[in-house]
Design goal:
The chain has one domain. Helix content is about 50%, strand content about 10%. The protein has helices at about 10-15, 25-45, 60-65, 75-90, 105-120, 125-130, 160-170, 180-200, and strands at about 5-10, 95-100, 150-155, 210-215. A four-stranded antiparallel sheet has the order 2-1-4-3, sandwiched between helices. Helix 2 (about 25-45) crosses helix 4, helix 3 crosses helix 4 and helix 7 packs antiparallel against helix 8.
Length: about 220
């Protein structure tokens, strides 16, 4: 089954600030949480249209995260927690864009890392670790990792241009099987960097600092 990779920009502190903050939510956070709860209900409906719930539901997983824990031992709890976390990201982010559809995204970007590494690209600019980084480290408790997805990735906006420029410099030497996808990634990173740079210069209140990736099957 293929996986879709989408992305959107947000402030990672806004996302992390909603987890474990039940009694300290501001009015803006309460409004964001209300939207996330509605989104979680829609997510659960999409996953299980017949209303069956053999494990932890996405709405219940969201309530766990807001309460400050992710300790369910349900069989598919990790998946539910990541879907719930994605709901929190979505309500704090701009409209998502699609990066692409991949049959085996982890394997593809791992192979791309190997090729870029061969060409001298430094480890901190390799894409696989960004796309599969997991949630913000600022979250004050452990969220289990769903081996089979969905996956969450983060790319700091201030590292978008260095990565794009480095990839562009090796395009003429890279294995042709990676050229199209690397060009696409360069284009997306350029666009997001330019938008971030423009917004931070024009708006003193602008605080989005991260490209969040969602990889779902």
């Amino acid at each position: 089954m293929s996986s879709i990779i989408t992305y959107a920009t947000a402030e990672r502190a806004d996302v992390a600030g909603l987890l474990g903050a039940t009694d300290r939510l501001t009015e803006d956070q309460q409004r964001a949480l209300a939207r996330a709860r509605e989104k979680a209900r829609t997510q659960q409906s999409d996953i299980d249209p017949e209303g069956l719930n053999p494990g932890l539901s996405v709405p219940d997983a969201l309530e766990h995260l807001i309460a400050g824990h992710a300790d369910s031992d349900a069989a598919h709890a990790a998946c539910a927690y990541y879907r719930a976390l994605q709901c929190l990201i979505d309500v704090n982010a701009c409209d998502p864009e699609e990066l692409g559809v991949y049959s085996r995204p982890a394997a593809f970007f791992s192979a791309l890392d190997d090729e870029l590494r061969r060409l001298g690209v430094s480890a901190d600019l390799l894409p696989h670790a960004r796309l599969f980084s997991g949630p913000p480290a600022e979250i004050p408790f452990h969220i289990p990792y769903p081996v089979d997805g969905p996956h969450i990735g983060m790319w700091p906006l201030d590292r978008a241009k260095p990565a794009a420029d480095t990839y562009r410099a090796v395009l003429d030497r890279i294995n042709p099987e990676f050229t199209y996808d690397l060009l696409l990634l360069i284009e997306r990173l350029d666009v997001e960097h330019d938008a971030w740079k423009s917004s931070t210069q024009e708006c003193d209140w602008y605080s989005q600092d991260t490209i969040f990736f969602s990889i779902t099957g």
